[in-house]
Amino acid sequence: MKVALVDNGSLEPAAHEGLRAAAAALSENAGIPVDAVSWKHSDRIAAAALKGGPAWTLAPWIRARVADGEREFLLVPFFISPQGAIGSALARDLAGLQEETGGFSYAFTAGLAEGGTLGEILADRVRQEIAARGLCAPPVIVVDHGGPSPVSAGVRDSAADAARDLLVGEIGPLVSASMESPDGPGFAFNRPLLAEALTASEFASGDVLIAPLFLLPGRHAGPGGDLDAIAREAQARSPGLRCHFTGLVGSHALAVDALSRALARALAAALPA
Q1: CA-to-CA distance for 150 and 192, rounded, in angstroms?
Q2: CA gap 117, 207 in Å, rounded
Q3: Which residue has the higher pLDDT, 41 or 273?
Q4: Which of 185, 193, 121, 119 is nearest to 156 (CA)?
Q5: pTM of the full predicted structure?
Q6: Dmax over Cα atoms in the chain, in whole Å?
């Protein structure tokens, strides 16, 4: 059986380096090799930009392992939510690979959306930023990417609710928002957008913490990303507004701990009685 930690993929070298670091930590905890594999995109990163050589993406990785005789795969999902649109598309890709290669079996471990881990990480990231900046009960915006699936929005809202409960007395108002949304009234679950939230009276002035529900830095999260640009535009409109970003979810120790436990349970279940 081959094991891989699978993320969405990114053209940002730091994102794939983060995936490799998490996979290495999982491997150490489990005592077995865990490969870092992106679903898409990361194989387009220049090999010279990555310390460990070119990035694997899922289809070439599966094909190479099957060519070596492997037919069993255990995949650890490094997604905020592996359900919804991403989960459906990933399942279609895996089904196509099964047909192409003559068949193999695969299973996913539990992910970060299970067991309350996301709320705990968000709360700890908020506390870290409050302490680092000496803030007093700042308002907080938890922001995810936004998309076509209400399932993913539900994961975001549940994580935000859990963080709010953990942070009672330490923060001001907390709201969940999306970075962007498809057009149309059927996607109201993505509202408010981050840009909209930053115009509300509770979040339009003073120190505001933005807690990105993103795993790794890339085009959207991290310095110079889309979230940063939205915050800077809001500050330009409201000179009294000071936006501060918390750390990301994927680099928090609790993320690796939760996935390590999920991997251990899946490996134990796979062993013969």
Answers
A1: 14
A2: 26
A3: 41
A4: 119
A5: 0.92
A6: 65
The domain 117-245 is placed in CATH, from the list 3.30.420.140, 3.40.50.300, 1.10.1040.10, 3.40.50.1400, at 3.40.50.1400
- Summarised one tens digit per residue, pLDDT across range 224-247 is 899 999 999 999 999 899 999 999
State the average pLDDT over residues 92-119: 94
Residue 82: band (very low, low, confident or very high) from pLDDT cuts 50, 70, 90: low
- C-alpha 168/C-alpha 164 separation (Å) is 6
**CATH 3.40.50.1400 residue spans of the chain:** 2-112+252-270, 117-245
Beta strands in 124-261 (DSSP E): 140-144, 174-178, 206-212, 241-245
User: CATH topology for 2-112+252-270?
Assistant: Rossmann fold (3.40.50)
